[in-house]
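Kindly review these tokens for lecture notes.

. . .
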Amino acid sequence: MKYFEQEKLEIIRSKISDIKNPNILELGVQKGNSTLMFLDICNKNDGYLTSIDIKDCSSVSKDKRWKFIFSSDDNFEYINQHLANKKFDILFIDSYHEPSHVRKIFYHYFYYLKKNALIFIDDVMWLPFVENGVEDNDFIERINRLTFNKLLEIFNNNVENLTLDINFNGSGLAILKKIGDKLNKETEIKNRLFSIKNLIKKFIYSPKPKN
């Protein structure tokens, strides 16, 4: 899985390496792997990085192109004072991996993004964590599934405001682009697989494929 984590950083790098004067907002620092990658791009392309974490990660770097905000990323009243009227080209969400939290911060920070800004959301895939999977973990499977479904609900009701791609490697990476100026509230996606009609098709009537 460590290989795939590095691979995801390289995917992000490839998407943003040509952006001039990038203004980047990072939610979640932890060990600083993504932070240092973003700072490398900022130094090459004359950009600036703002990072937020509930833990004190200020020792990750002394780079003058970096501002660290020691706070939970949903403490909006406090954080808004630091962001003022800033607009960002890139948003990376890698903090508290829980669907309602991801939804909350996605809707809030969306309005701090420029048109065509890129949004990266880590840990949206559950396949490695299913029963007998390479990283068998019931809790992570459930949380990642729910986060993935929440993103689909948001996107499905905002196709005029967002684009969405999913990288399925490792724990997954969602890649979105802001193409509209606002976000509609997400709505539940109806699943017809378990309707009476489809259950009948599955258990009673199962047509053979055409030759």
